[in-house]
Design a protein that fits this description.
The chain is 36% helix and 16% strand. It is of the alpha+beta class. The chain folds into two domains: 57 residues, no CATH class; 236 residues, NADH Oxidase.
């Protein structure tokens, strides 16, 4: 039988079997459906969604989280965790969280600026920008941006029988239970008066703590997957690091959800502050998470990089 005869025979058979032809065409157009997608490095999101038709294909991790973080109204796990945090030891730990900050090599930041401009106008003007000029920013511009993202703004009394004066420090962004599990790490590149390198922002003392004994520039090009901006022209980068156990001991699987809400609030404040300062910025989702965590000294198990913002001055 010739190839032509074979094609004609197949065409004739498919003409008689309408549903089979439709299924074959669908399979040719959507080749990403595979029982092996869970064991290969190619696991595109749409492959996972379509693969849900097959019990051999794993679903989204996010789906598992949403199914488990609040299973039913009868799940007492979170209530038990929350109730434990009314105890003296938990309250005292939250009230004295500033003791976790290190001062031996901390770099004091200048007072943040009091920004002018109406909220509506700043929200309206906010846009993502990627045309960085390479112009250095001042230390007080950096201080203003990070303070609006996570700075301490007051305190809430939480007296106990053992400590009548206990109070929890409050910040510019709401946090579930006032636990603040998200840290801000600054990757400085072009900041006047600050050596290029990685620093952790310490909100209570409004300082930067160098993550290396001797600050060393972080090569952003090695960690980012982007072709639409020149990373060497960014003034500084903000890395959001989630400390899983800080709030998950209280909220269980819901801790991650609450932390990501907190990250969103921090990011929004940061973008509004840099807009008011006349700076540009963009969030970046394409980065090598594991490589970046290793560079910064985070284990990637209890402490995770969950977000990334590039900040600087735009071209004139």
């Amino acid at each position: 039988m010739s190839l032509k005869d074979s094609q004609e025979a197949v065409s004739e058979y498919l003409a008689q079997q309408g549903p089979l032809a439709t299924a074959a065409a669908f399979g040719q157009q959507h080749t990403s459906i595979s029982v092996y997608s869970a064991t290969t490095v190619v696991r595109a999101p749409e492959a996972v969604v379509r693969g849900r038709w097959s019990p051999a294909v794993d679903g989204f991790v996010g789906e598992e989280l949403l199914l488990n973080h609040r299973r039913s109204g009868r799940d007492l796990g979170m209530q038990l965790g929350v109730s434990r945090y009314y105890g003296h030891d938990a309250v005292t730990s939250s009230a004295h969280s500033e003791l976790r900050e290190r001062q031996d090599r901390a770099i004091a930041l200048p007072q943040h600026r009091r920004l002018k401009g109406g909220l509506t106008s700043i929200v309206t003007e906010r846009r993502s920008g990627r045309q960085f000029s390479g112009r250095a920013c001042s230390l007080d511009e950096l201080a203003t941006v990070v303070w609006h993202g996570q700075g301490v703004t007051g305190s809430l009394p939480v007296p106990t029988a053992q400590d009548a004066g206990a109070a929890v420090s409050l910040r510019t962004v709401a946090s579930g239970g006032g636990l603040y599990p998200v840290r801000l790490v600054v990757l400085a590149q072009h900041v006047k008066g600050l050596a290029p390198g990685a620093y952790e922002y310490q909100p209570h003392s409004h300082t930067l703590y160098p993550l290396q004994r001797t600050p060393t520039p972080v090569d952003l090009a090695r960690h980012l997957w982007t072709a639409d901006l020149e990373v060497d022209k960014v003034a500084f980068t903000l890395v959001y690091v989630y400390d899983l156990y800080v709030n998950s001991q209280k909220y269980g699987d819901s801790g991650l959800v609450f932390a990501l809400l907190e990250v969103g609030g921090m990011s929004q404040n940061i973008h509004l502050a840099r807009t008011a300062l006349g700076m540009i910025a963009c969030d970046q989702g394409g980065y090598d998470k594991q490589k970046l965590e290793k560079t910064l000294g985070f284990d990637g198990t209890s402490r995770h990089v969950v977000h990334f913002t590039l900040v600087g001055h735009g071209e004139a």
